[in-house]
Write a structure and sequence with these properties.
Layout: H1 17-31, H2 34-37, H3 49-62, H4 67-74, H5 79-88, H6 90-103, E1 110-119, E2 137-141, E3 146-158, E4 163-170, H7 179-186, E5 192-194, H8 202-210, E6 214-216, H9 226-229, H10 232-250, H11 261-284
Parallel strand pairs: 1-5, 5-6
Antiparallel strand pairs: 1-3, 2-3, 3-4
Protein name: Transposase
Domain Transposase IS4-like: 109-277
GO molecular function: DNA binding; transposase activity
Length: 285
C-alpha cells in the first residue's frame, strides 16, 4: 500500500447528442424486454423510447433540474407525456446499468462506501412537508451541519470512480446499516472496503470479515492508536468518493425534483447511468 497508483476519470459526459442517440438506440435493441418493444400501438408513436432515453441523459448532462423547462427547450413532447414516458423506461434503465456492470472490469484494488443526502424540501419546511410522508423523514447532514427532510442514498464505488450499486433509505438511517446489504447485492471481487468514521464498529467489521471483506475506517482523533492507524494514502483514496458525489449532484442526483416514488427512482437511475456512461466513454473510447 506504500505505492498506490490510481487512475481517475473525470466523469464529465463529453458526447454529442447525435452520438448519444446512437448509443441509446443500441442499448434499446440489446436490452429492451419483448413485452416493452411489442406493446400496443408502439408503431404509431412519433418519439421513440430510445430518443426519450437519450433526452433524459441529455437533461442530466446539461444540469437542467426542471423537466418542464427542459421540455420547453426541445419542444418535442408535452411535459406530462414526457414525464409519463420517462417513468415507463425505469425497468430498461435499470437493466442497462446492470449489463454495464457485467462488462466493465471491476477487479480494482479498493471499494469505497459512503452516502449522500437527497433533501426534498427546504430545511424550514422539514416538519411541515407532506410529500413522501411515510417514506422519507428527517436526517442530519454533517458536512453542512443542518437537518434535512428526505432520503439518503448509500452507494458503493470503485477506487477509480465507477458506481457499482446503491440503495435508498430514509434520511435518518445510519450508514452502517446498509453496508452488508450492498455487499450482498453487488458481490464484488475486491477485498478491501474503505469507509469513513460512520462505519466504525466491531459488529460490522466482523460481519464483513465473515463475507470475505476487510473494512478499513479511519479512527477518530480521540481514539487510542489513531495516529498510527490513520493511513493518509487510504484516507485520500476514500475521499475520492466525495468528488464522485459532487458530480452526481451535477447530474441532478441530489436535486431530485420528482414528486412520486417511481419518478424519484427514475431520475436517480438516470443520474447514475449518465455518470457511469461518462466513465465508460472516457476509459474505453
Amino acid at each position: 500500500m506504500n505505492c498506490l497508483k490510481l487512475k481517475r476519470f473525470s466523469h464529465h459526459l463529453q458526447v454529442s447528442f447525435k452520438d448519444l442517440v446512437i448509443i441509446c438506440r443500441h442499448w434499446y435493441r440489446l436490452y429492451a424486454p419483448a413485452e416493452f418493444t411489442h406493446r400496443r400501438n408502439i408503431d404509431q408513436i412519433k418519439t421513440t423510447d430510445s430518443l426519450i432515453l437519450a433526452l433524459l441523459i441529455w437533461q442530466a448532462k446539461t444540469g437542467i433540474e426542471s423537466q418542464r423547462r427542459f421540455c420547453e427547450c426541445f419542444n418535442c413532447l408535452s411535459h406530462s407525456r414526457f414525464n409519463r414516458r420517462s417513468r415507463q423506461l425505469l425497468q430498461l434503465i435499470y437493466q442497462i446499468r446492470q449489463e454495464m456492470n457485467k462488462k466493465v472490469d471491476l477487479n480494482g484494488q479498493f471499494l469505497i462506501i459512503d452516502s449522500f443526502p437527497v433533501p426534498v424540501c427546504q430545511p424550514i419546511r422539514n416538519y411541515r412537508a407532506k410529500i413522501f410522508r411515510g417514506y422519507a423523514n428527517i436526517g442530519y447532514k454533517a458536512t453542512k451541519k443542518i437537518y434535512f427532510y428526505g432520503f439518503k442514498v448509500h452507494a458503493i464505488v470503485r477506487d477509480d470512480g465507477y458506481i457499482l450499486d446503491y440503495v435508498v433509505t430514509k434520511a435518518s438511517v445510519h450508514d452502517a446499516r446498509e453496508t452488508v446489504e450492498l455487499m450482498e447485492n453487488t458481490h464484488p471481487s475486491n477485498y478491501y472496503l474503505l469507509g469513513d468514521e460512520g462505519y466504525l464498529g466491531k459488529e460490522l467489521h466482523q460481519q464483513l470479515k465473515r463475507m470475505g471483506y476487510e473494512l478499513w475506517t479511519p479512527y477518530r482523533k480521540n481514539m487510542t492508536g489513531a495516529k498510527k492507524h490513520n493511513d493518509h494514502q487510504l484516507m485520500a483514496i476514500r475521499r475520492t468518493i466525495e468528488s464522485d458525489f459532487s458530480l452526481l449532484t451535477y447530474y441532478n442526483a441530489e436535486n431530485n425534483r420528482a414528486r412520486s416514488l417511481i419518478g424519484f427512482q427514475s431520475r436517480l437511475e438516470i443520474a447514475i447511468l449518465a455518470y457511469n456512461l461518462a466513465y465508460c466513454l472516457e476509459r474505453f473510447n
